[in-house]
């Protein structure tokens, strides 16, 4: 009946399953090697073959200039003084983005996303012309080209138009070819550095302890709540990949702070396992104001000169439910299921519960972090 309470109890059920560890997780799920990351690429190009839905050459001057430059590179001579005479409706200027993963070699392919930069109506049916993709350092790392896949459409005339999704954004699967490899240095000094995705002192200490238990004392040590230094054992100097693979599957007792995350737009509430409440009294009541217009037919008397008319009649009613003062007696060690049941006894909706959590936090009775999205 109340989705947020059901979600909390559902999560609590899985946390209480016998034979499972609620906090144990693999190293690869909570940490990553320093320097092993994606790199963003960007390019400016042209999409041709559009069915009259391209950029307006009078408004998008940069598109006209790009067409002129492309035709010049292809050996087509155009008088610069006559550049404004170019009239095309099937070309659009676009920005091309891609993500270059680590260890990608020359010849590998990447997915690219293409988005209109001018006033094009739709990119459906278009073909991206050869576009170099550069990194932040200005070097070209990939080249993109191919037919766009646009999961949208837009049709219409001067009086009406029908559109679904965004027709000015498209995607090309495996549309870019890697031309240059980004080197990744691992263990060059006999040491690896792991970065926790969520910095935490307890998790960093537990991860170092787990690695030391499996590879010997002194192999790993945390130098901050977000990084763990790992010395590569002598027996793995020539087998670095095997050592990293062995570390990635180690189980670690991960720990996080107690949090309650609420989304006011959707009415969603998610409570962490370690959330605790002190004893607090909560009063909840609803006030409903209902205004309804009912049409009433007014008919004149017989043999009179009056006319039959429809006159509105407004009914106003106010409904105020009795407030309930509910005592939430939260003793040490209660579970999120007990908290959910106690709040459910008030009879509040998910949006009401958001306001209740905000008030409980303001009173100092909520031991944890309240995050409002």
Structural commentary:
It is a single chain. This protein has 373 residues and is α+β, with helices and mostly antiparallel strands. It has three domains: 24-36 and 185-253, Gyrase A, domain 2 (2-Layer Sandwich); 39-178, no CATH class; 260-297 and 310-372, no CATH class. It contains seven helices and 23 strands. The strands form eight sheets. A six-stranded antiparallel β-barrel has the order 3-4-5-10-7-6. A four-stranded antiparallel sheet has the order 2-11-13-12. A three-stranded mixed sheet has the order 16-15-23. A hairpin with a 4-residue loop joins strand 8 and strand 9 (161-164). Helix 1 packs antiparallel against helix 6. The protein is flat. It starts with a helix and ends with a strand.
Q: Helix and strand layout, with pairings?
A:
Blueprint: H1 3-15, E1 24-26, H2 27-30, E2 31-33, E3 39-48, H3 61-73, E4 91-100, E5 109-116, E6 127-134, E7 140-147, E8 153-156, E9 161-164, E10 169-178, E11 191-196, H4 201-215, E12 220-224, E13 227-231, H5 240-248, E14 251-253, E15 259-263, E16 268-271, E17 276-277, E18 280-284, E19 287-298, E20 309-320, E21 324-328, H6 336-344, H7 350-362, E22 366-367, E23 369-372
Parallel strand pairs: 15-23
Antiparallel strand pairs: 1-14, 2-11, 3-4, 3-6, 4-5, 5-10, 6-7, 7-10, 8-9, 11-13, 12-13, 15-16, 17-22, 18-21, 19-20
Helix pairs in contact: 1-6
Q: Could you say how many structural domains there are in total?
A: 3
Shape category: flat
Outline the biggest β-sheet. 6 strands, antiparallel, barrel
From the alpha-carbon coordinates, what is the Rg to the nearest angstrom?
A: 32 Å
Structural class: alpha+beta
The percentage helix is 10-25%
% residues in beta strands: 35-45%
What is the spatial order of strands in the main beta sheet?
Answer: 3-4-5-10-7-6
Q: What is the N-to-C succession of helices and strands?
A: HEHEEHEEEEEEEEHEEHEEEEEEEEHHEE
Low-confidence stretches: 1-22, 287-291
Average of per-residue pLDDT values: 79
Distance between the termini: 23 Å
Number of helices: 7
DSSP summary, beta strand count: 23
């Amino acid at each position: 009946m109340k989705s947020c309470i059901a979600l909390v109890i559902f999560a609590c059920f899985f946390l209480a399953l016998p034979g499972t560890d609620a906090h144990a997780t693999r190293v690869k799920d909570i940490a990553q090697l320093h320097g092993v990351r994606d790199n963003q690429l960007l390019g400016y190009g042209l999409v041709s073959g559009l069915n009259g839905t391209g950029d307006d050459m009078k408004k998008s001057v940069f598109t006209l200039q790009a067409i002129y430059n492309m035709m010049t590179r292809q050996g087509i001579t155009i008088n610069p003084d006559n550049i404004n005479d170019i009239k095309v409706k099937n070309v659009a200027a676009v920005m091309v983005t891609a993500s270059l993963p680590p260890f990608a070699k020359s010849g590998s392919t990447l997915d690219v996303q293409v988005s209109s930069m001018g006033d094009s109506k739709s990119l459906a049916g278009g073909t991206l012309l050869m576009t170099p993709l550069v990194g932040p350092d200005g070097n070209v790392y990939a080249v993109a080209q191919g037919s766009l896949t646009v999961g949208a459409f837009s049709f219409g005339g001067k009086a009406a138009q029908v559109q679904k999704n965004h027709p000015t954004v498209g995607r090309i699967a495996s549309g870019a070819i890697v031309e240059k490899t980004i080197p990744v240095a691992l263990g060059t000094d006999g040491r690896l550095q792991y970065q926790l995705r969520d910095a935490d002192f307890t998790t960093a200490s537990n991860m170092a302890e787990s690695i030391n238990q499996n590879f010997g004392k002194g192999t790993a040590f945390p130098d901050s709540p977000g990084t763990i230094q790992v010395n590569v054992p002598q027996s793995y100097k020539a087998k670095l990949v095997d050592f990293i693979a062995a570390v990635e599957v180690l189980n670690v007792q991960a720990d996080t702070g107690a949090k309650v995350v609420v989304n006011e737009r959707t009415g969603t509430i998610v409570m962490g396992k370690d959330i605790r409440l002190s004893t607090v009294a909560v009063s909840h009541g609803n006030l409903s104001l209902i205004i309804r217009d009912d049409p009433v037919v007014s008919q004149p008397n017989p043999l009179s000169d009056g006319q039959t008319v429809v006159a509105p009649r407004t009914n106003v009613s106010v409904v105020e439910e009795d407030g309930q003062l509910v005592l939430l007696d939260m003793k040490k060690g209660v579970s999120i299921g007990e908290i959910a049941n106690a709040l459910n006894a008030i009879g509040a909706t998910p949006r009401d519960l958001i306001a209740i959590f905000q008030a409980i936090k303001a009173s100092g009775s909520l031991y944890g972090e309240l995050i409002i999205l």
